[in-house]
Amino acid sequence: MLCIKDLSTDPYFNIAADEYVMKNFTEDCFMLWRNEPSIIVGKHQNTLAEINVDYVRENKIKVVRRITGGGAVFHDLGNLNFTFIRNSEEGAQVDFRKFTRPILDVLLTMGINAKFEGRNDLTIDGKKFSGNAEHVWRNRTLHHGTLLFSSVMTDLSAALKVNPLKFTDKAVKSVRSRVTNISEHLKEKMDVIEFRDRIMKQIMLMYPDSKMYSYTEEDIAGINKLKDEKFSQWEWNFGYSPKYDFEKMIRTEGGSVEFHLNVEKGVIKDIKIYGDFFHKHDIETIEKSLVGINHDYDSIMENLSHFSFNEYFKNIRVDEFVQGMF
Fold first, then answer.
1. What is the pTM (predicted TM-score) of this model?
2. Which domain does 58 fall in, by range?
3. Do 227 and 267 belong to one domain?
4. Which residue in 201, 203, 204, 209 sits closest to 102, CA to CA?
5. What total of structural domains would you count in the chain?
């Protein structure tokens, strides 16, 4: 087994690395990696329905869609991620317990009584510290999971706090759980880097054929190509979302504004705007201009910059208007 300690903290790179290693290596692999503050959404989720858009934009948090299913998770440098990529026989490829067992065994050596619960969670005293997801490609199974070690829980909560009533869709919804950090349960004090190294050491002891591996220049170039062409692109991270309807009402100095959007593949297909605001010009011009625009803050702001906005929505700031569409 190749054991890879990925030192990058770029979430676009790290999510791309999972797919690259799965499809370009033939050996079994184990990887440990961390991301700077980011939200990683499941392959089949409606991204905007899983994130607090204002908080994400204000704090410059990257949002990345992964190739596995499951719910959205918040990553920061206090969260350690692990990936197993194994060659498996047909019919024995999806097995959450098999892939999480080594992690539980490592934690038991540290005196932590962690358990596998539900569909894909690891818990301590009933509180979740790890969510897991899997993807099968040919005879290769990719299993990855989070290990909350010393994450900032207030950031986690704020980044994923979204009003579910705004969206009507068929996308897979995340289920929020009570969570805990592993560091709160350790009998000996250590930081996340020491914890990472302890995990790697224990995994290498468990698998006698294991050896450390560092990405070659060719690997890094291949991962960056995948990152640039797919995982850092709006079309994948937001546009891949299932079709959805969006409704929201905001109150402003210029009156109330109510938005009704129909969005498909991240693009606004239809929009109606209602409210008790005053206007000089017919707002249908604004509505028509927004059809075909990405349901994306910057794209909508750019589109509206071509209008004398106050003549369509008197005493309403364009930024608060656009924020109302998320």
1. 0.85
2. 2-237
3. no
4. 203
5. 2
Q: What pLDDT, on the 0 to 100 scale, is given for residue 221?
A: 98
pLDDT attached to residue 119:
76
Q: Do residue 108 and residue 257 come from a single domain?
A: no
Query: What percent of the chain has a predicted confidence (pLDDT) above 70?
Result: 95
pLDDT confidence band for 173 (50 / 70 / 90): low
**Are residues 192 and 303 located together in one domain of the fold?**
no
Q: What are the tens digits of pLDDT across the range 267-279?
A: 999 999 999 999 9
CATH number at 284 reads 3.30.390.50
Q: Are residues 189 and 257 in the same domain?
A: no
Domain boundary among 237, 258, 274: 237
Q: For 90-144, write each residue's pLDDT tens digit.
A: 655 667 888 888 889 889 888 898 999 887 789 999 899 998 999 999 889 999 9
